[in-house]
Every structure is written in structure tokens, then in C-alpha cells.
Amino acid sequence: MTWRAAALLAVGALTLPVWPSPLVGVAVMTGAVLLLLAVDLALAAPLRALTAQRTGDQAVRLGGTATVTLHLGNASGRPLRAQVRDAWVPSAGARPDVPPTQVVHVAAGEVLALPSRLTPTRRGDRPTAELTVRSFGPLGLAFRQRAGRPTTPPWTLRVLPRFDSRRHLPEKLARLRLIAGTQVGRGRGPGTEFDTLREYVSGDDVRSIDWRASARRAEVLVRTWRPERDRRLICVVDTGRTSAVRLGDEPRLDASIDAALLLTALAARAGDRVDVLAADAAPRASVGGAERPAQWSRLAHALAPLQPALVETDFRLIAGELLRRHRPRSLVVLLTALEPGALGEGLLPVLPRLAARHRVLVAAAQDPVLAALTTEPPRRTEDAYAAAAAWRTLAERDRLTTALNRHNVTVVDVPAPRLAPVLADTYLHLKSTAQL
């Protein structure tokens, strides 16, 4: 029963003093309203003949807006007057073009398109919640309603990582071209693999002169070099408990994913093969051979649904997977937290075996809370104790960094906004100095 039927009952109640008997008046009034409700309900379009389908975007980058359209078909012989509430999970940020309180009209045999614009607030998969259709009669007194799984057409919008660090990609690619020697600069780009011989020109490094070839040709010739290509890079994203720590407005896992995407895009342009593994106590995602743009898109889709797991990361499992799957020497980039407990007890015991076969790089995003506690002067006694704990934590991180360096492990420990560009610079430095 709608508000209109309730209004009819209220009007009838005002006419009760006119009737000789109040009971007769109530009976007549109630019977008339019930008759109108039955007629109106019988004339309402049946919902069994209703069809619902969806079309639209299946993926969107975090911060962007996607459009998903609901197509509501009326297969009955009666016109449909209905209110439609297309609900999504709250983090999907759905804004329907037609409000749920508005009555839509669909003629018999026609299909109505109801678009919804979604601006998600979280990374991952955002599914539909429930579709509710309320069909009114021509008088607007009664309605039929249907909701639930049979009525709701399934649809899932995958929200890809924001990838803010892509703004650094042009500058990193320019440095890569300079390393490759394909961009004009001061001197030739450094390299490690012999390419060709050419005639000496002013400005060339005299150490590149090939004296034997120069003696045979009776002219000064220099060797040209190119950076190593088709190298292997393994990016390991830690999804354990330390990845749930919030660094500013986002968890550490999001900063690690952003750095992994920039590093993968840069290494793919450099001609290297990139494999990505996400794991904690068990492998969560694995993408191999991300050296082409299509593979890079697949990597973004694979990392999008990852969420921090409140378990301790099993570095023995990760080291075993790397040693079993990747036999050629590779650059292993471990995106994790530089925490003495997790790395000291988990990674250090298995590091000698891993570093004997691969070049290892540990990249960690600093916690801004620790930096604030050690830079701001304490104002209360509690602040002094907190600052002392922060200094002790930083000292333990320094000792852990020293222990990692003993195994020839490169450590990148910077604030979260700088993690992606600094990691990319470190990769470029290792590539230009033939340390991959």
C-alpha cells in the first residue's frame, strides 16, 4: 500500500461523522479502498516478465569514473511504471542518473537504459549489491516488488591501482635512452655489451679506442657499447601484516604496488623480462613475462584485488619459490617493510642461498610517524618516551641495513611518495653499471 492509499483512508475517516453508524462507515470505506487496491494491483505490470542486463566498463583506474548501464526490458503486455533501485557496494561510489525515488515508464515490449556512474574509493573488485524493482498500478495505490539474486544481473567492476608514479615514466625513459646511447647527450651512453666500431670523433672517451683495429685500418677507431638487454627481473610484493600499515592516506601495500608498476613499465621498455610474485604465508598472485604492454596491463589487473593479510610473511616460502622457478641469475626486488622482526627472523636465515644465485634489492617505504617523532621536539613526557622508542626502531633498522649490505644486498629506504622513482633510479644505475 502506498501513501495514496493511506491518504484515502484518512479522507474516509474524516467522513465518519456523516454516517448514521460508524461501523457501517468504516466497513464501506475499508471495502472501497481494498477494492481499489485490488484493481490497481491487478493492473500493475507483472515483474516475472521483466528482464535485466548490464553493459559498460569492466575496469577503471582508482580515481577515475566508469559507466555501467542497466537495461530494463518489459516483456509483458502492460506498461511498466516503476521505481528502480540499483544498489552497489558503498566503496563503488555509484551515482545513478535516475534517482531511486523517480518513477520510470517502460512501454510494453520496450527496453529502458538506466546508466550509473561509478567513482570507486578503493582498489579491488566492486560487485553489484541488489536490484530492486517496484511496479506501480495506474492509480499508484498498490505495487508489486521484486528484489534479490534472481533479479540482479551480476556485474563486477575491477578498480585498478591509481599508478600516480606514471608521471615519472617519461623522465626515466629519457635516462634509459641516454644509457642506451640513442639520445644525443654529452658523450655516449654507457653500456656493457660490445656493439660496433666507428671512427673516433672529438669528445669520445679515449679509453674506448680499439688500438688493434685502429692499427689495421690506419685510422683511430672506438668501440661503441649498448646496455645489456633481455635480463631477468623478479619483483616480489609482500602482502603480509606489515603491508597493512598506513603510510599517510594509503597502506604500505598500495605504495609497493605503485613502485612495482613503474619498475615493470621501465624494465619492459628496456627489453628486460619481468616476473612479479605477490605472497605472504602463501602465493597470492604470479605474473610472468611482463615485457610487453599487453602483459603490463595483465599485471595491473592481477595486482588490483590484492589486500593485506594479517599473517606473518613466510620468506622461506618466497626464497624457495624463487630458487625453484628462476634458475638464471636475476635481479630480485623485494618490496616489503624494513622491520627487524620480520626480515631479521624470516629473510636473513635464507638470504645467503638467495644472494648466492641472484642479485637482491630490498625496497621499503618509511613510516612518516617515525620521522615525525624523531624530528619534532617532545612537548610532554609521553612524547619523550615515544621519541625514544622511535629512535630505537630507527637504530634497529640501521643494524638490519648493515646486515643486509654484508650479503651484497642493495637497500632502498625512502618515504612512500619517493619509493617508486628512487627504485626506478636504482634499477637504472644497476643496469648502466652492468650489475644486473
Automatic annotation (TrEMBL):
UniProt-listed InterPro entries: DUF58
This protein's name: Uncharacterized conserved protein, DUF58 family, contains vWF domain
Superkingdom to which the source organism belongs: Bacteria
Residues covered by the DUF58 domain: 197-373
Organism: Micromonospora phaseoli
Pfam families in the record: DUF58
